[in-house]
Design goal:
The chain has one domain (65-331): Orthogonal Bundle (MetI-like fold), CATH 1.10.3720. The chain has 13 helices and no strands. It has helices at residues 19-24, 29-39, 41-64, 101-137, 139-153, 157-171, 177-189, 191-205, 208-215, 220-228, 234-259, 277-287, 299-331. The relative contact order is 0.14.
Length: 332
């Protein structure tokens, strides 16, 4: 009888699945997470990109301790021709005093993650809770939330946050403008999460498994936290990438106006030298074209813009992957 075909113990089967794939086939929370990552490459790519920015933020805090100043003065008399990308400065130099663009972007990572995380966290958590409660409980609470959402959505978020911020800053003596800006921006953005989540929560509340949970005597708070909110997060994930670019747009406008003799007192950033991607992009756009030599220093605004785009792509990929997993769960 011929020996059985197939690989021996010394010769592993080339078609045998990897350890990662074998773990993903099992059960349990960790294995379900691995299986979701294997089946959703966009989620894995977005998570990897955001983890990269997270590692940069930790490294920046460890090496520089969260520096809040770049000492960018744009002294063109000192050096009217700042050098571009080179081996010593891979992203070029920011101004005539020799501020490195790569170092400036590196110092800005923890600040931007903190600002974006605070604004989007306030908006997403508040909007999801308000929309889910309005769609599930209905009644007077639904009417109040819907009326407030319609009122806030009547004005574009950019104009609304600028008007609210300037109104508070001009008429009330406040030393720290950045926390105020974060709170107001979160308040302006929460209706964009509440409205779609409310519509999804209404449809989830009519599902048979929710009716069965009610019939079994489960309290409304348990049904809301266990069934309604987790299954209503899809629209919230779809809104996150849009709001990332809205926040950067507003953060870019204030320092950009300050370049053209507008008062920098109204900017939410602590100083014109504050390391923040929107501020660096605005400074690069303002001074990337030298008023003395008429030379286009493209690296001053190109690399900050690419950094913002890369971070937005990471958020979009992560949101798309998480939304796909939720939609698949709802179909099942």
């Amino acid at each position: 009888m011929p020996p059985p075909s197939g690989p021996t113990e010394e010769e592993p089967d080339p078609w045998e699945p990897s350890v990662f794939a074998r773990l993903a086939r099992g059960h349990g929370p960790f294995r379900r997470l691995l299986r979701a990552l294997v089946r959703t490459p966009t989620l894995l790519a977005g998570l990897g990109l955001l983890l990269f920015f997270g590692v940069l933020a930790l490294a920046s805090l460890a090496l520089d301790g969260g520096s809040s100043s770049l000492v960018v003065h744009f002294d063109w008399a000192a050096n009217p021709f700042p050098p571009g990308p080179s081996r010593a400065h891979p992203f070029g130099v920011m101004d005539g005093l020799g501020v490195d663009v790569a170092q400036a972007l590196f110092l800005a990572v923890p600040w931007d993650l903190a600002i974006l995380g605070s604004i989007l966290g306030l908006a997403a958590v508040g909007g999801v809770l308000a929309g889910a409660c309005a769609g599930f409980f209905r009644g007077p609470f639904d009417w109040v939330v819907t009326s407030l959402v319609d009122l806030l959505l009547a004005v574009p978020p950019f104009f609304l946050v600028v008007v609210l911020y300037l109104g508070v800053v001009l008429y009330f003596p406040i030393d720290e403008h950045l926390p105020l800006f974060v709170a107001l921006f979160g308040f302006v953005l929460w209706p964009y999460y509440a409205r779609p989540v409310r519509a999804r929560a209404q449809s989830i509340a009519a599902e048979p498994y929710v009716e069965a949970a009610r019939a079994s005597g489960s309290p409304p708070s348990r049904i809301l936290l266990r069934h309604v909110i987790p299954n209503s997060l899809g629209p919230a994930f779809a809104q996150l990438p849009i709001d990332v670019y809205q926040v950067f747009f507003v953060l870019t406008v204030f320092p950009f106006l300050a370049c053209y003799n507008a008062t920098s007192l109204l900017s939410p950033l602590p100083s014109p030298q504050f390391p923040e991607w929107g501020n660096l992009l605005a400074l690069g756009v303002c001074f990337g074209w030298s008023p003395l030599a008429a030379v286009n220093f493209w690296w001053m605004y190109a690399f900050p813009a690419l950094t913002v785009i890369a971070f937005g792509i990471g958020v979009a990929l992560l949101s798309d992957g998480a939304s796909s997993i939720l939609e698949a769960k709802l179909r099942v």
